[in-house]
Write a structure and sequence with these properties.
single chain, alpha/beta, Arc Repressor Mutant, subunit A, Rossmann fold, two-stranded antiparallel sheet, 14 helices, about 20% strand, globular
Amino acid sequence: MNGTPDRDASPEDRILAMARAFQASRVLLTAHELDVFTLLSRGAKSAGDVARQAATDERAMDRLLGALCALGFLEKKNGLFANTPESERFLSRDSEEYLAGLAHMSQQFRSWASLTQAVRQGTKADPGPIDSDDGQRTRDFIAAMHGRAKGNAANLARLIGLDGVRRILDVGGGSGVYAMALVREAREATAVVLDLPKVALLARQYLREAGMQEKIAVVPGDYHQADFGSGFDLIVFSAVLHINSAQENLALAHKAFAALNPAGRVAIEDFVMDEDRTGPARGALFALNMLVSTTRGDTYTEAEIFGWLRRAGFTDLVRKQTGPGSSLIVGRKPS
């Protein structure tokens, strides 16, 4: 796909290419919002046909489709537009490999437009997907998180190591995707997913579709306020710490410690920043994503996360790389 800065270009051209990179992103997201790729998955069409089915202006749609061809998302032959194999695979809602997270990215695009204001005032200007009363935003957000986690969840379960694990608590567990992977890996285990009531409703749906509702319970509640209970062998925080302030994360570490059995473990999967906070790039950009979409969220360093865990009483802290900029951190409650 085109639209990214060329490393062989001059410094001026690289800067300008990055400054206008939003154009290619906006073209893709607009096409997704108008269901262009899904419409074309049912056969090649003229710009007029796509415009009528998408309820848009024909000339404007023709220009959008032309830009999509230029960017490598579509092909044009004999006046008809068609998906490329890659677009058919990942961008059509009819595909099993459809990237459901694009709907959430459309919302992020709007939130990022307020970055200047957020930097000036130190907090977001727009409610985030979970804070919002818009149920569709919540569904889009959870679908995005589920899609991103599917490939990583099984690997995370293996990295944690689940020998002897019987009871698992997945805090802020979203769709339950990590709880499902953990229970599949530790076949004798059961799990509890704790998340906000409107997210819990969606989690139950995902669990029913996966046939996992008998082994995984869903508890609605705000993890800052809810009682974690007791008797757990493993407590998981996946993509949770970055939503919260440092003080809130310290409090969560204490709550996890109290809810674990002796020798139980806490597992944290998240972006982990270099100590000078200048990298990795994905984590640095995600810190700004938290600025425009949460009131207190941030990305944190290993020293910060280890510090919370040690203050809560955890020992034997280890960190393993799980992806670009992200890591798994595991700590143990003494026996």
